[in-house]
Amino acid sequence: MLKNPIPKVTNQLQYRAIGIVSGKFIPHDTKQINRGFLTDNKGEKIETVILGKALSLLKKHIDLKKNYYWIVYPKNKNSENLHLQVAGIWDPYQLNDFQNDSSKTNFSKLLEELDLKDNYFSIRGELVFVNTKKKEIVIKICSDSKLKNLKNKNFKLVIKGELPLELLNSFLSLDINRDGNALKLISYEVIEKDLSEKNLMKG
After folding, report:
1. How many separate domains does the chain show?
2. 3-class DSSP state for residue 74?
3. pLDDT score at 176
4. pTM of full prediction above 0.70
5. I want to staple 176 with a disulfide (CB 3.0 to 4.6 A). Which of 22, 95, 111, 121 is the partner?
6. How many CB atoms are located within 10 Å of the residue 146 CB?
7. What is the predicted pLDDT for the residue at 49?
8. Would 8 be classed as within a structural domain?
């Protein structure tokens, strides 16, 4: 069974921001390897942090001289400074039950079988801002309701692209492509129109 690095959603209004990026991870410091840069196949660098559960994988299985597919959460303050948090590493052979020689594997073909590709991000959240001049949009992501006590439970992502103003406050599912340090809109689907009206009715 081929494990999908970006699982299917379990709930129509499930917020998320997750992607897959191929590259090499270069730590800032050999003593503290959880922070560094992810350098992609074009040599572009993205500021990256390895989260706890991926850190033990990194220490046990990962050869830092090699390229891997990294499962990442994106963060940014503007459309030019992407920051990634590594949640896992997608290697269907080495880290799953496949008995195979992963050096002969065409990972991009395997990704295509799952309708994915390198630098693809799935973002689901509320459209809170449209900048028609800059051709940018802002999507608000709320983290899992079980983690209500977390300070940074909600965050916003700035994405390059154009959407109609009437979709403000709607819940959208977006297909995004990473280009350098920018996230670019490929396509979108409206899951629920105008969440603010619903919240008013609840209140």
Report:
1. 2
2. strand
3. 97
4. yes
5. 121
6. 7
7. 96
8. no
